[in-house]
Amino acid sequence: MYILNAMDHAPTDILMSLLPFAQNLLTLVGMVWVTYKMDAELALLSMTVVPVLYYAIGYYVRNVQRRVDDVRGLEGGALGIIHEALAMLRVIVAFGRKGHEYRRMRQQGERANAARIGLTIRQTVFALCVDPTTSAGSALVLGVGAYHVLQHTLTVGELLIVISYVSSVYKPLEAISSTIAHMQGQVRGLQMAFDMLDTKPAVADAPGAVDIGRAQGHVTFDKVDFNYATRPETLRDV
Description:
Blueprint: H1 2-38, H2 40-46, H3 49-87, H4 89-94, H5 98-150, H6 156-198
Helix pairs in contact: 1-2, 1-6, 2-5, 3-5, 3-6, 5-6
């Protein structure tokens, strides 16, 4: 389910995210340049939040993204249990295994749900870290700008213009941070899809295997042995 969803939507989502990313990046460069021409010191101060956002995004990619993979694996396992139960419904009913399958599905679902809640909390904390960071940058620019006004190197009107431009600078920064975090999830999903497609089957034809052609439906079992890893001679000379 996740593999098909990633193959269907991830490339489109990535392409759709690139245009806003490029737009926000150009807006960021333009606003910083205009602010720099008005007051170079304030423009440089407004960029002090960039390293913080950079390390925040790096932390997200290194830690949160790994949890995203774990959650997808758990949710995929829950869907796999449902698929197996539906495919083997008659066997489950015949052998009275409904309670067992229900408990197995519930346990897997609870694990996936707990992991999803933990992941959502971490993603929310990451999003909340971006706003205080940009607010601190705005406060720093405002404080230094007020000092420049008192020193008569900047007028109140120019300070208000600079503050408005700095606000315009931080909006693209916030958008870029969110876009990068979103794109990481899409890229990882697409990578998982390609990894799945590149996985070699566990059962493969032997070298020089003969093509069976069109089967006639006549099968004979003669001296068949079968062993489980933990239970040898499950079938013997059948």
